[in-house]
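Deviations from the work plan: none for this task. Representative record:
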Amino acid sequence: MDEDHIASAYDRDLEAVQAMIMKMGGLVEAAILRAAESLEKRDEEEAEAVRRADAAIDELEMRVNEECARTIALRQPAAGDLRTILTVMKIASNLERIGDYAKNMAKRTSVLVQMQPIEGSAGSIRRMAKQVELMLKDVLDAYIQRDPELAEDVRQRDMDVDQMYNALFRNFLTFMMEDPRNITACMHLHFIAKNIERMGDHVTNIAEQVIYLVEGEMPVDDRPKRDRTAFETVGPEA
Amino acid sequence: MDDLRQHLQVAGDEEVKISSRNVQVYYGTTHAIIDVDVDILDKTVTAFIGPSGCGKSTFLRCLNRMNDTIDIARVEGEIRIDGEDIYDPKIDPVQLRAKVGMVFQKPNPFPKSIYDNVAYGPKIHGLATNKAELDEIVERALRRAALWDEVKDRLQTPGTGLSGGQQQRLCIARAVATEPEVLLMDEPASALDPIATAQIEELIDELRQNYSVVIVTHSMQQAARVSQKTAFFHLGYLVEYDDTGTIFTNPKDPRTESYITGRIG
C-alpha cells in the first residue's frame, strides 16, 4: 500500500518498527559472518565480541515486540497493516534465534581454538555461513521491496544449505571414525554446522512471512527438504 | 479466512433472505447507488461500511422502502425478500415495514409510556386480540431487547425518561414487537457511550438467532465485532462483499484495503 494513512503518526510508527527490523537484520548478518570468520581464523577475541554483540539483537527484538503491542492497542491495525505488524513480530523472533545460533557458534569457537584444527572444516563452514548470510540479505530485501518472487527464491535456496550440511555431517563422521581424538572437535563442529542449517530454516520462515505479507496467504506447497541426516547410519549399510 | 470463533460462523444453511439485482437510486439527478447486486443471508448480521456519502444508508433504506418518503428519490432494479419483489405495486409499504423493522441512529421513542411505545405497532397491525395478549407481546419484545428487567416495574412511565442506551433498546423492542423477519439498523450505537454500545452489540448478536440483521456503521471495529458478512460501499458502488474475517485481514479490492486501514475517509 503506497498511500499514506490519514493519521500520519500511524505511518511513522509502522516505519519506525520496520526500521528496527532492518537494523536487527544488519546486526544478525554481521554476527553470522563474524562468527564464521573467527572460527576460520581461530580468533578468540573476535568470537568473544560476537557473543557480546548478541545482547543488542535481543534488546531490539524486545523493542519491536513492545512497539507492535502498542500499535495493536492504539490503532487496531487491519488488513495489510495487520499483516505488517504480525510479520514484523515473527521476523523479529526468527532473527533473534539466528542471532542466538551465531552466538552459540562463537562459544564453540572459543573451545575449538584450544584443539587441533580439523582439516578443511572451517572453510566449509564459512562457505555455508556465507550462503545463509546471502539468503538473509535477500530475504530482507524481499521484505523491504514486498517481493514474493525473491522470497520464494530464497526459500528454494535453503536446499543448498541442507546439502552442504549433509556433506559436512558425513565428513565429521569419517573424521571421528578415523581417529577418536577428533571426536570432541568434530562434535562441536557438527553442532556449528547444525546451527547454520537451522539458521537457513529461520531464513525460510522469514521468506514465508514475506509471502504472507504480500499475498495474504502462507505458501501451501511442501518445501523440498534435503536434510537426510536423521536417517544416516555409521558403518556398512545393512 | 475461516473464522475459528464457532459461534460467529454463518449459519450452515446460508439461506438468502434479501437479494438485490442491478439496484440504482437517484436523488434528482444524483446517481447515489449504482448497480448494486447483493445476497443478504438469513440469521446473519451483515454490516454496511464505507465513508460518508458512499450510499450505504441509502441502500439500507431501499430494503424497507424508506426512500419512498423522499419525493425526489427514485429506485430502479429489483429487491426481493424471500423471493418477493418488494417494489411490486401490490405490496403495501406499511406491511413491508412491519416485516422489515428499522432502528435509527438517535433513539426516537414516542412521547408515550414505555408500554405504549412497544404496544403501538402490534396494536395497529392487529397482532393482539385482548389486553393479556398485548401484555405478553410487550414483555416478549422487551425481553428480546434485553430491557425487561430494567423497566418491568415502571412500564407506565414515559419512554423518553430512560437513558440513551435504554431508549435505543426500547426502539429495538418496538421494532421486534411486530415480529419482523429483517432488522435494519442505521448507526444504532453511534450516539451511545461505550457501555451502552457494548450492550447493543451483545443484543445484536442475540437477535441474529431470529432475524436477518443489517447494520450500517461508521465504526469499522463495530462492524468487525458484530457482523459475519461485511459489504464495503464507495461512491455509490458496492466494492466488496465477503466474510467479515476476510474483509478485515485480506480484502481483495485496494479501495477496501485503503478504507479499513484508514487511508481514505
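Chain A touches chain B at residues 1, 3-7, 10, 75-83, 216-217 (CB under 8 Å).
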